[in-house]
Design goal:
Keywords: DNA-binding, Transcription, Transcription regulation. This protein is α/β, with parallel strands linked by helices and 340 residues long. Helix content is 51%, strand content 16%. It folds into 2 domains: 90 residues, Winged helix-like DNA-binding domain superfamily/Winged helix DNA-binding domain (Arc Repressor Mutant, subunit A, Orthogonal Bundle), CATH 1.10.10; 246 residues, Rossmann fold (3-Layer(aba) Sandwich). It is globular, with a radius of gyration of 22 Å.
Length: 340
């Protein structure tokens, strides 16, 4: 297909611009439905007249329906989106980018989806679905899977297809609770993922922002101790990659710690550790759950993050574990390859 695409680019280059534009419009309708023309126009920064023409075309082709509440995608439209995905991958040279990124980061494997999650919400759906497919492909009988919290991990769990075969899998929350949203807590994600994989789950009933004194007391609890021991046996870890500044805000760190992170040029946070771009630890927090040394020993680790804003964080975390698998997007990839 690659040779054919190169020929098409020479003979009819305008077809790719139109194809990508229509793909982006369909994906946004699918993600944001029901949505009106004006809202879609503002979202895509495309003139409303142009959007109207494309919408009329999609409607004639039976790819969308239009009613008083807005536009919605049809099953035929969803099929077109799915069918175009691999073609868009080839047009944008995604496979070549994956090789370049894995070589740049010196990691085991990089898997990239088109687009930039900082610009288009639907890209997160592709990231989560790609990660979910990867999980179901590599999970084995008797695996102990660790998951961290966060919006990205919540999306990954949502994207996993329901499995019927019992592989005696256990999913464990690898971090304590953080923030107020139940949906993005590691415990909630562990339970959802376990149900999707037809497995069991273990929750870590503790906050991830405990003081050192409380942390030591919590570890003495038999139930907490049992979970911590299980976390040390995790052989497949799926984790999100956080920006240092965003995580510091979520944790409501003291001003002096935030100042320290800024002065030391921290760009990433993982497992309670803050790292600079070179992957050097610049600040450590006492947390409950998976520890940095545990992370280094895990056989298979899948890091998930997208968007240009996560580029430096991805760069830093990739230096920590060379045998990790990264699932990211085109936005973060091009930012890393072009700027770092």
């Amino acid at each position: 297909m690659k040779d054919i695409i190169e020929i098409q680019k020479v003979i009819i280059p305008e077809i790719f611009t139109l194809l990508e534009k229509r793909y982006e419009i369909l994906r946004n309708i699918s993600t944001l439905q029901p949505i009106g023309r004006r809202a879609l126009s503002n979202r895509l920064h495309i003139g409303e007249r142009i959007v109207r023409g494309e919408v009329e075309f999609f409607s004639r082709q039976g790819l969308i329906t239009i009613n008083a509440s807005g536009m919605t995608i049809t099953s035929a439209g969803e099929s077109v989106i799915e069918g175009l995905k691999d073609y868009i991958y080839d047009v944008r040279g995604i496979k070549d980018l994956e090789v370049k990124l894995s070589n740049k980061l010196n990691i085991k494997k990089a898997i990239i989806v088109p687009g930039n999650v900082d610009i288009d919400d639907y890209v997160m759906n592709d990231i989560s679905k790609t990660t979910s497919n990867l999980i179901t492909d590599i999970v084995k009988e008797n695996d102990i899977i660790g998951v961290t919290g966060g919006n990205t991990m919540a999306a990954v769990a949502d994207g996993v297809n329901q499995q019927s075969k019992d592989k005696n899998i256990t999913v464990v929350a690898a971090r304590g609770g953080l923030g107020k949203r139940v949906e993005s807590q590691a415990n909630t994600i562990a339970a959802k993922l376990a149900n999707k994989l037809n497995g069991n789950y273990q929750m870590l009933h503790a906050s991830d922002t405990l003081s050192e004194e409380l942390l030591l007391k919590m570890i003495e609890d038999p139930e907490i101790s049992k979970i911590i021991e299980m976390i040390k046996k995790v052989n497949l870890l799926i984790f999100g990659i956080g920006r240092a500044d965003k995580m510091a805000k979520r944790r409501e760190l003291p001003v002096e710690v935030v100042d320290k992170l800024e002065k030391s040029k921290a760009v990433a946070e993982a497992f309670g550790f803050y790292f600079n771009r070179e992957g050097v630890i610049v600040h450590e927090m006492q947390t409950i759950g998976i520890q940095f040394n545990d992370f280094l020993k895990i056989p298979t680790a899948i890091g998930v993050a997208g968007g240009t804003g996560k580029a430096e964080a991805i760069l830093a975390v990739s230096k920590l574990k060379k045998d990790m698998i990264l699932v990211t997007d085109e936005g973060a990839t091009r930012e890393i390859l072009e700027k770092y």
